[in-house]
Fold this protein.
Amino acid sequence: MSAPPDGLPVYRVLTGPDDERFCRRVSEALALGYELHEGPAVAYNGENVIVAQAVRWPRSPAE
């Protein structure tokens, strides 16, 4: 597949509290075929740990 499914962008940044829901969102993106782009960013907002994880659609060998 040369493009992400359902019209999704080739680059996405997933963000949210560091909880099971966030982990499932990242896992779902990986299951669709996205790859992690670098490591996550983690911040504390005084109440919760907030995580950001970039994912990207892999390029075809011809690109």
About this structure: The CA atoms of residues 7 and 17 lie 26 Å apart. The chain has a mean pLDDT of 94. Helices lie at 20-32.
